[in-house]
Design a protein that fits this description.
This protein is of the alpha/beta class and 272 residues long. The protein contains ten helices and eleven strands. The strands form three sheets. Strands 1, 2, 3, 10 and 11 form a five-stranded parallel sheet that branches. A four-stranded mixed sheet has the order 4-5-7-6, sandwiched between helices. β6 and β7 form a beta hairpin. The protein is globular, with a radius of gyration of 17 Å. It starts with a strand and ends with a helix. It binds zinc ion (ZN). Zinc ion (ZN) binds next to loops.
Amino acid sequence: MIYLFSIDVEDNRPAVENVKTFQERVYINIQSYLNWLKKYNFKCTFFIVGQAAQMYPFIIPELLKEGHEIACHGQSHIPLDKMNKDDFRRDIEKNLNALHKAGASEIKGFRAPVFSLISSTKWAYEVLYEMGFSYSSSVLPARNPLYGWENFGEMPKKVDPGIIELPMTLAHFGLLKVPAGGGIYFRVLPEFFISWFFNKRLNGDRAVLGYFHPYDIDSGQEKFMHPGINDNKIYNWLIYLNRSKVFDRLDHIIQKGCQIITYKEYIEKINI
Ligand SMILES: [Zn+2]
């Protein structure tokens, strides 16, 4: 089974009050991911925010040297519904410039910040197509407190005018549908649930898509209240929960027989 493990490279501090009082942790966490990927000789896709590429330009050549794919994740991590089509075009231009300047080329993929590609922001596909992108992995095809496009469907498909969308894979458990292959869900759900979800997929021909962030593995980060969650203490606690268990959990998934490849390689394999 193919596991489209990916990393959204962003700093989770910038919108925090007194940001400078908290350590920057992106680089050290990327190194941990690189070491883990190297252990299995897996190549994956890094969706990189332009501001992060400007802050850590030296990361890009390191990723390229290891054979990983570089893709866009917005210049400043602004959700699509907070922009219009022209703002989005400018934002992606800046994101591409930052990545090109750091040494990346032939960027074909995009992931919308916080999966904000929904029915009302689907104009983004036109901009991506005009700008030469081939694929997007920006849709969470379920109801979600933040963003979700429930009617999109769970299968990859070509969206007008010609972008392949690879939506997040959902675990179905009764009425609950969650993207258990990555991020906060992969960390906070009990491991037997994650294991059950991957076991069900093992012999199928559908890939599991998942996303991680530098902070998802960072058990050394100071505690602060994250912005954008209305001071919700429980949610903030979940943001830190089980970070130290992620690599063990990932090892267990890989030992089941999953293989990680880049998104670019995957869309070349599938016939859409
Ligand atoms: Zn993000």
